[in-house]
Amino acid sequence: MSAARGVAVVTGASSGIGAATARALAGAGFEVVVGARRVERLREVAGPIGAQALPLDVTDPASVERFCAEVPECRVLVNNAGGAIGLERIEEADEADWRRMYETNVLGTLRMTRALLPKLEASGDGVVVMVGSIAGHEAYVGGGGYNAAKFAERALTRALRLELLGRPVRVSEVDPGLVETEFSVVRFRGDAERAKAVYEGLTPMRAEDVAECILFCVTRPAWVNVDQLVVLARDQAGASVVHRRPGPEGA
Questions:
Q1: Domain holding 186: CATH number?
Q2: Is residue 247 part of a domain?
Q3: What is stated as this protein's family in its record (predicted)?
């Protein structure tokens, strides 16, 4: 099951950064396995690039176990599954939303990494990429739940980097800022107009921009580890610091 560069697994690959990363990896010579809950969307991504599409819900341990059992070897794992829900302040927080964000961003990452680590190490040059967020570096009003999850994911990443020191597995963290994907639609529970307003008056990054950063990390020589890469739009200088121009979006 190995291509020229080996097998790369991408979670949350039915759209956005995950889908763009799958395409980038396939184009670079990896054999790609993609996983997500929306299987039909996933197949639409996988078909044109010759990837293997498998159902995956990282919040479900049994789903993770089934998925990983179908991946006999692995050299690259891109932990992309995640996301935010809502913008409520902590005083108005919904524990169910916080629990879902923690399950997806933190425990889902733990489950996938733990399950595939033996195969990553057996490859002789494994790479784990955590797709984090600028929200894991800076807190902002209304982002408490997502901040908490992404800060925790960064801590997990750092601990893993230390634990794997001396073993043939690299650990990289790619932390993007504003990227125009379905992220905001999900955050605002399907409210497309509210999601669109997030990007008004500025030029956000595209999913492909982040995918190129991930590809850069996994294609460095085996002795090079990109520990952390923070990538923001030119119009963004922090988690909640942006420049918006009047007139048409992105003008």
A1: 3.40.50.720
A2: no
A3: Belongs to the short-chain dehydrogenases/reductases (SDR) family.
Three-class SS state of 176: strand
The pTM of this model reads 0.94
Q: How many domains does the structure of the chain reveal?
A: 1
Q: 250 lies in a domain? A: no
Q: Do residues 76 and 129 make contact, with C-beta atoms less than 8 angstroms apart?
A: yes
Q: What is the DSSP letter of 146?
A: H
Domain of 78 in residue numbering reads as: 7-242
Distance of CA 180 to the CA centre of its chain: 14
Is residue 190 domain-resident? Answer: yes
Amino acid at 111: R
The answer to whether residue 2 is domain-embedded is no
Instruction: List the catalytic residue out of 102, 140, 146, 199.
Output: 146
140 as an active site residue: the answer is no
